[in-house]
Design brief:
The protein contains six helices and eight strands, in the order αββαβββααβββαα. The chain is an alpha/beta fold and 215 residues long.
Length: 215
Amino acid sequence: MTRTILHWNTQKLCRCAVLLGLVWLTGCMNLYENRVESDYSYKGNFRKYKTFSFMEYKRSDSDSSLHLAIVEKMIRTRLQAQGYRYTENKPDILVSHRIFYEDFVLNGYNQADINIWLASGKKEADNDDEDNRSLNEEKKEYDPIKYSLTRGTLYVVLIDRKRNQSVWQGYASGLLGNKDFNNEGHIKKSVYAIFDKYKVFTEGYLLTNQEPRMD
């Protein structure tokens, strides 16, 4: 009788261990599939940007009109909630976005959170001298890193229009599914997940407005 009980308890413990292993494995898979990352240029005048618009680009055959429309709408809503004003007349920032439906590897940088970097006082936004700007840029070291992104990756780039240089990029993979996956909620989730990495408000905006909810 005692042997039977011990045998049953051993089997039960083994099953629990297997279940816990599966839960842990699933969590790891979700962490990989739902990767959200961003990086930025040390030359970005982030505190000076106030206006934005979208870049025009030719759609590929794989692009979904529904996806692109929702993405652009959500980006506009999010940036406006952070104090940016939409204009097509010489905007400070041009926004480019694209959905990748296949797996790919993206080159990025291992950096501190952009708000931590801005708060450190090392930003170049207060220095308008191009020579000093280039010198400071050389002193900063980028730490390259490669990200393996899964199918259904939303990729957003912010471009300094005046200097014609990308200053920030964010990406969320494994959140959109494929091109036939038309779940608006998941697309919104991707946009918000990306811009949670870019909580940079326009200068003076928070002095007169409460920080909007990000949920």
